[in-house]
Structure formats: C-alpha cells, structure tokens
Design goal:
Layout: E1 8-11, H1 17-24, H2 30-41, E2 45-51, E3 57-68, E4 73-83, H3 88-104, E5 110-112, H4 119-127
Parallel strand pairs: 4-5
Antiparallel strand pairs: 1-2, 2-3, 3-4
Length: about 140
C-alpha cells in the first residue's frame, strides 16, 4: 500500500543523477554526466523527482519544451516518467504534475515519448485519455 502524502515532488538536482539513472535503468558516462548537468540547468525542460520521507527517489518525470514553428507556440514532450514498482499510483501523479507544468508554459497538449518496455507508462497515459498519434522515428546515428 502506498503512502502518497509521504512523497514530495521537487526539482531534480545534480546529486540526484545517480539515483535517477538507477530508476530509469540508464547508464552514466563522462559525456552523459555533462549532458545531464546541462539538462538540469536548461530552461528548455523540467526534471523533477519524487522523494519519499526517507529521502529515497521513488519517481522521476522529465518534460522537454521546444518552439514549434508548425504550431506557433511551445510544444511539450513527456521525455521520461517512471515510478518505483511499489508505487503505481505515483506514476499518475507525476503525469498530472507534468501536464500542469506544460500548461503553465503555454502548451496546449503533452506528447509522450515511450520506449518499447514502457508498459506502465502507456497504461497510465491511456487511462488519462491519451491516444496514439503518428510519430515516425529513424535511427540516424550519432554525430562523430
């Protein structure tokens, strides 16, 4: 059983990065660490963590903002949202938080980037009324 009142959502900090990577199952390296530090400092995105009463990070949500020439305003993309396995309703709370942040930035909608293993996120988004839309993705390789 979850104790949602014992979880607070706060802006992510550099010291959170190792725990965020553990929650997201991603790895860090020299280039990644620099990228992540810049991401946390950038106004082009929001990174927030959910922290329990003991100080453990039990969730993360990241929203990226871009200027959309096609829409004539900012567009918001839910880049990542993950909650600890024993906190499924926290994921819904993090999505609602991301929606509120995007609304405050003037974004009329929030698109979500899902990986093939993001079943919990897909389920949470669909339960909130999100629908599938076309997005074509091509692997173009990294800049050398």
């Amino acid at each position: 059983m979850e104790a949602q009142h014992d979880v607070r959502v706060r802006r992510g900090r550099r010291s959170d990065l190792p725990r965020v990577h553990a929650l997201l199952s991603t790895s860090a390296g020299p280039r990644r660490e620099r990228f992540d530090r810049r991401t946390l400092a950038s106004l082009a995105g929001d990174v927030y963590v959910a922290e329990d009463a003991a100080g453990a990070i039990v969730g993360v949500v990241s929203v990226a903002y871009l200027r959309s020439l096609g829409e004539g305003r900012f567009a918001a993309v839910l880049d990542a949202a993950r909650a600890a396995a024993d906190s499924p309703s926290l994921l819904d709370r993090l999505i609602a938080f991301a929606e509120a942040r995007a609304r405050r930035r003037g974004c009329p909608r929030l698109a979500a980037r899902l990986g093939p293993d993001d079943r919990a996120l897909r389920t949470a988004l669909e339960s909130r009324g999100y629908r599938t839309s076309d997005l074509l993705v091509g692997d173009i390789g990294e800049a050398g």
